[in-house]
Structure formats: structure tokens, C-alpha cells
Design brief:
Layout lengths: L2 H16 L6 H8 L4 H7 L2 H28 L4 H15 L4 H11 L8 H20 L9 H23 L7 H16 L8 H6 L11
Helix pairs in contact: 1-2, 1-4, 4-5, 4-7, 5-9, 7-8
Amino acid sequence: MGNREDLLASASRCLQEKGYGRTTARDIASGAGVSLAAIGYHYGSKDALLVEALVEAMGRWGDTIGEALSAAAEVDDPQERFVRAWDAVRDSFAEQRGLWTVQFEILGQLESLPGLSERLAEAQKAGRLGLAALFHGKAEEEDTPEDLARGVFYQSLLLGQAAQWLIKPELAPSGEEYLRGLSLVCGDVLGGLPGGEPVGAAVGAAAGVPGGAEG
């Protein structure tokens, strides 16, 4: 690897081991075996390098969770597939605690990091489309309004699940709990399906929700 790649790898290790706030430029440079000046030359600043390391780490997480979701994709029933997928995501947090901790740490400091919020915003769309592809078993992302809408939904569920897991792992919702909530909310918001069948009843059957959205 060249100096640029070595710096990125070192920054990624530092994020996992020390977090964002406690990682210094010297830590990264030392871990990469390069001079401090190399950080500015290749990335502009330590903060810009750390954000790039975070974006890359999330990409690796996506590859890992994609393998787990591929097993769920083989299930024919869409509701059971939904449940298994979200259980797999929840189980992934234990091995990636540092990654999720640092994400929330960085989000809390964006106002004091000019320009970095824009870089993360740039990664948002790709992340959303990637999630839509992952949860629908697609090999490639499709940039359509429908896939972007799905990605926004999945991203919101993902961040909520991660935050609750970080507070206390037992608090993180399971796939069954997400399916039950989806059933109830669909029934409340959308009412019924064409033909008169309540959305909550249709979606909630596999989630064990008597009467769908009712109750």
C-alpha cells in the first residue's frame, strides 16, 4: 500500500480503538509509519481523513451485513425475510460497536467541523440506495425515487436500532418487533388495501398482531 492507503487503514484502526475525539494526528501518522505532514498532503486535515475512514468502514460493514442478509433473501415469505434481516443487522452490532459509537460521536460534533457535514451528506444518498439494495437482495444499487424512499426508511430504522443497542443491547428492537410496529403504523396511516383488507391485518399476520392494526 502507498502512504494514502496506509493513512486510511491507520485512521480506521484508531477510530475503532480510541474513538474520534481521542484520536490525534500523531496517532494516525505513527500507525501508518509516515510523517504528520503526509496527512495534510493526502487528505487536507486529520478530521477529513477520519471521516473518509468512517465512510470506508461503513462500506465494509455493508459488505459484511450483505453476506448475512443473503441467507434471509432465500426465504420466500417477505415478512419472515424482513424479520430475519433485521435480526441479522442487530446481531452485527456486537462485532462493530466501535464503528457505531464513533458515528454518533461524530454526529454530535459536526457543527464544529466545517466542511465535514457536507462530506457525510454526500455519502447519505449512496448509503440509502445501498441499504435499499441490501434489503431487497439486489446485486447493484438502482438510483430510482422508489429505491431512495426505501433507503430513507431503512436508514431510519437502522440508526434507531443502533442507538438503542448502544444504550443497552437488550433494548434494540428485534425483527418481530419491527414487523409488528410496521403493521400497526401501516394500518393507522394507510387504512386499508384495495379490496377492503386492512393493511395492518395483511402485514401483521406473521407478526402475531391480532386483528392487524386494531388493538
